[in-house]
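Sharing a chain and its predicted structure for anyone who wants a worked example. Both blocks are below, sequence first, tokens second.
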Amino acid sequence: MNSYVNMGVGALLGTVFVLMSVSIASEGIFHSGEPEKEGFAIVAEEAGGEAAGGGEEAKGTPIATLLASADAAAGETVFKKCASCHTPEKGGPNKVGPNLWDIVNRPIASHEGFSYSAGMTTFSEGHKVVWDFDHLNYFLEAPKKHVPGTAMGFAGLKKEDERANLIAYLHTLSDNPAPLPTASSEGAAATGTDGAAPADGGAAATTTEGGAAATTTEGGAAATTTEGGAATTTTEGAAPAEGTTTQGTTTEQPAAQ
């Protein structure tokens, strides 16, 4: 075999040996084990059986209630998180997202000149669905959860007050702002009367004084009381007899001798 070939093979083997040695030595010197605690754990959110595409959302504070105390000025500050992708002014250009002037109650995926994702177009149902206050609230909380397939990469606003303030600000972006929703009443007020007489079928009350029997009836069942040799009987539904007590008023009558 040619000596030059022997030298080449020897050089190749020597290079491989050196690289392997360096690799083994580096692993021993710079080896790092698994951390005892992860620095940042990503927890996948469970669907929880919710219907896709804007199905019934998890119940929270109604948007009407949130808007009642919302601050549009604070919402303008929150909007800075959206300013890199959206413009708020009338006639403003589209950017990564569409212009948001007059967004409240605007048909979804309908802004002129903007190319919407297939997910947003499907969700709009041919522009029949509008950006009402509820849809804005749900979408801003979790865009990809409320509209699957949307190209919007925003993670969402988890705090209710931030969403309400932002929606209050978006509500002002119009020449003719839509009316704010009215919070629904929390159930009917309870009614009742204190000290009301018992309903029909209640028990009859009986009062006796000084050996005379007297009965009190409030539309109740018949009751018979004997005391001191005198007896009076009240039948259900009968009018009070002389010497009886009605609604807590007592008239005394001597017992028969």
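Comments welcome. The CA atoms of residues 148 and 157 lie 17 Å apart.
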